[in-house]
Amino acid sequence: MLIRLARASLWSRKLTVLLTVVSIAVSTFIILGVDHLKNEMRSSFSRTVSGVDLIVGARTGPTNLLLYSVFRIGNPTNNISWQSYQKLSQSQEVAWAVPLSLGDSHKGYRVLGTTAAYFEHFKYGQSQPLKLKDGQVFEGALEAVVGAEVAAKLGYKVGSELVISHGTGEVSFTHHDAHPFKVTGILAPTGTPVDQTVHVSLSSIEAIHETPQRTALSRPQKSFQSQQEHKHDLSSADTYHQHPKEESGSHQHSDNQSEHRVDDNLIPDSVSAMLVGLKSRIGVLTFQRKVNQYQDEALLGIIPGVALSELWQMMGMAERALALIALLVLVASMLGMTTMLLASMREREREIAVLRAIGAHASFVVLIIEMEAILIALAGAVLGYVLLATALAGLGSWITAEYGLFISALPLSASTLGYLALIVALAAVLALFPAWLSYRGALARGLSVRM
After folding, report:
1. What parts of the sequence cross the membrane (predicted)?
2. Less Cβ around it within 10 Å: N or C end of the chain?
3. How far apart are CA 59 and CA 294, in angstroms?
């Protein structure tokens, strides 16, 4: 009976009630959206890289090194020389090392120069390895393996050709169109920045940046893949040769006017960073100290998990600020609901007085007002949840494409239920004031004759 009376009373004022429900729904949308976005960002960042003991780069901030080497955000302030990469990768503590070279892009997607070992050792999530959806890993120069999103958005298949551009912006005026790449493989979706990356070999990176005035150091290709089995004479690093141009194995220019043969054995002068896996995780801190105290050049070694925690500490203030703003919006909408209830009390004085006159207890009147507030808040909370879930389902792919964030559907988690309960409880508390005023003087004023 109580709920039926409350519903009937709300229906008689449906326009103002509807506006109040919408305002609460907007507040719910914001507060649940902020909380879900925060949780998804943490989850997305934490599952991006797994099984990497150390990331080594030029000496800069740990956060900057983590962002550009793993998340493809930003750019390195400096590079690691190839000699330092070799020396560190051949250390007794190192089980494997993967070089990373950044600085180019393709239609807004980052290009990563690396070796075939990247596809073997790089893992994400719960130590899940990278898998090919189609094709195979690149074996020579001018071959590319593209991420799932790159292939889907640009319509690439195995055998497609693409041209890499200099720089990392969406618009570039310098294209390496003299060296088109052939897509040899497409990776399965991972939900990480790997999906938005074009992977090529290090020799390919050297080839597309080579000019007639520039020469490159040539080494056997096995030096990329067998760092632990072959020792190199670093003193021979001053031996250079002119980049060969022959007809055999050449790649045609797009206008078919010139041909270039790319040496698969080109070795870079430097790389942007390196991923390191150690034989024993007990020695992580020892090897990190060795990297940080490296004498030949200024290097920095970071542990991915530690760097991530530092990143969240930096973002903690922003998260709290967003949560505070969302809470203030919720309080504002609740105060609007209270104002609506107070404004309706003058119109409902006769209704409440009649209820009191026929024997309704004061608590019964209070409960009706409370039930109305709870119904309004519950309707607004449910509407806000449905709107947010619908928006995430419809805009999830767009958010991923535009911002690189992988946002899952909104779950009915303990956190979500907690916020919904908070909305209803706050509405019940704020409705106590108009409920108290409703019976305090409603009987005398409601039954008096109005002139």
Report:
1. 15-34, 321-342, 354-379, 385-405, 417-437
2. C
3. 11
Residue 215 has φ and ψ, to the nearest 5°, of -115, 165
Q: Name the strand (E) or helix (H) holding 393.
A: helix 362-403
Query: What b-and-e string marks burial along 128-157, b requiring 16 or more CB atoms within 10 Å of the CB?
Result: eebeeeebebbeebbbbbbbbbbbebbebe
- For residue 49, the model assigns a pLDDT of 86
Radius of gyration of the chain (CA): 32
Q: How far apart are CA 286 and CA 195, in angstroms?
A: 33
Beta strand extents in 202-358 (DSSP E only): 217-218, 251-252, 259-260, 266-267, 270-271, 273-278, 299-302
Cα–Cα dist 145/132, whole Å: 9
Distance, C-alpha 172 to centroid of its chain: 24
How many C-beta atoms lie closer than 10 Å to residue 337's C-beta? 26
User: Is 114 exposed, middle or buried (CB count within 10 Å of its CB: 0-12, 13-18, 19+)?
Assistant: buried
- Quote the CA–CA distance of 335 and 71 in Å, as a whole number: 42
DSSP character at residue 247: S
pLDDT digits (tens, 9 = 90+) for 385-431: 999 989 888 887 677 656 656 677 777 788 888 889 999 998 888 88
pTM across the whole model: 0.66
**Cα(359)–Cα(301) distance, rounded to whole angstroms?**
78
270 neighbors 209 (Cβ within 8 angstroms): no
pLDDT tens for each residue of 398-408: 776 566 566 77
Report in angstroms the alpha-carbon separations of 447 from 252, 343, 354, 356: 96, 19, 8, 10
Question: What is d(CA 72, CA 187) in angstroms, rounded to the nearest whole number?
Answer: 17
Residue 317: its pLDDT value, please?
Answer: 81
